[in-house]
Amino acid sequence: MIHPTAIIDPSAELDPSVVVGAYSVIGAGVQIGANTCIEPHVVIKGPTRIGADNHIYQFASLGDNPQDKKYAGEENTFLEIGDRNEIREYCTMNRGTVQGGGITKVGNDNWIMAYTHIAHDCIVGNHTIFANGASAAGHVRIDDHVILGGFTGIHQFCWLGAHSFMGAGSIIFKDVPPYVMVWGNRAEPYGINKEGLKRRGFDNDTIGTLHQAYKLIYKKNLTTPQAIEQLTLLQQETHCEALFPLVEFLQHSTRGIVR
User: Fold this and answer.
1) Local confidence band at 201 (pLDDT 50, 70, 90 cut-offs)
2) pTM for this prediction
3) How high is the mean pLDDT of the chain?
4) One of 29, 100, 117, 120 is an active-site residue; which one?
């Protein structure tokens, strides 16, 4: 159902099951999948692709121009949002830039609370939680099952590994490895995300091995190459598959990890 006061550009492609509330504006080049609900006073500009079963709350602004001084009006940049996302009040998500790959992408099953901001060229995975006021600057990568506490701020080009946890009010200037909890301004590591891992089905042996890995990285005064070598040996000894993402992260981190 589309409210009669909503403004829908003729070129927008909405599945017949999409609900659009009063005074919402859907611009040219927008595609919205089945059973997505757009509440009143939402603005969505294109090119933007939104999947199925999303719920977008009032006053959200999606797909507008990137907040980047290099942006020169290029039309071939996109915002892509997957399925089953909750996008709450006053959220803002900008399209990508040509310099950053051209796309801002949000995956599936994310819970994105009020006043959050996802800037140009960010890549967000699945099952993440952005608490109120969390903000990601441009070119940030956020992997699956990451949790951002309220008013967390992430510097551009940072990478947050899967299952990591940012405490409320954290300011992130470096990459955060998978499974690690951080907090503070500037953010510092505070162990592994034990409770989160338990809730997602990690067994005690795996959690114990990840705790060993954390100590290798943060308690042994090793360089990053030395830590990678020790983690590889630990994986060979324990056959713990959860160590693979951690080793890969350390091998590919470009900003260095939080310390």
Assistant:
1) very high
2) 0.96
3) 97
4) 120
Check if 121 is active-site.
yes
Per-residue pLDDT at 243:
97
Buried b (16+ CB within 10 A) or exposed e, 224-246: eeebbebbeebbeebebebbebb
Would you say how long the chain is, in residues?
259
Spatial separation of the C-alpha atoms in residues 235 and 14, rounded to whole Å: 48
Give the Cα separation of 155 and 229 in Å (integer).
29
Alpha-carbon Rg for the chain in angstroms: 20
- What amino acid occupies position 70? K
Give me the residue label for tokens 């550009």.
9
Give me the catalytic one of 138, 150, 153, 161.
138
What whole-number distance in Å separates Cα of residue 28 and Cα of residue 133?
29
pLDDT, position 130? 98
Is 54 within 8 Å of 36 (Cβ atoms)? yes
Q: Is 101 a catalytic residue?
A: no
Q: Is residue 67 pLDDT above 90, yes or no?
A: yes
Six-digit token string for 18: 């999409």
Q: Among residues 68, 83, 121, 144, which one is catalytic?
A: 121
Spatial separation of the C-alpha atoms in residues 219 and 221, rounded to whole Å: 6
Active site annotation includes 138: yes
What are the tens digits of pLDDT across the range 7-41? 999 999 999 999 999 999 999 999 999 999 999 99
**For residue 173, what pLDDT is reported?**
98
Q: Is the pLDDT of residue 75 over 90?
A: no
Of 205, 200, 230, nearest in space to 215 by CA: 230
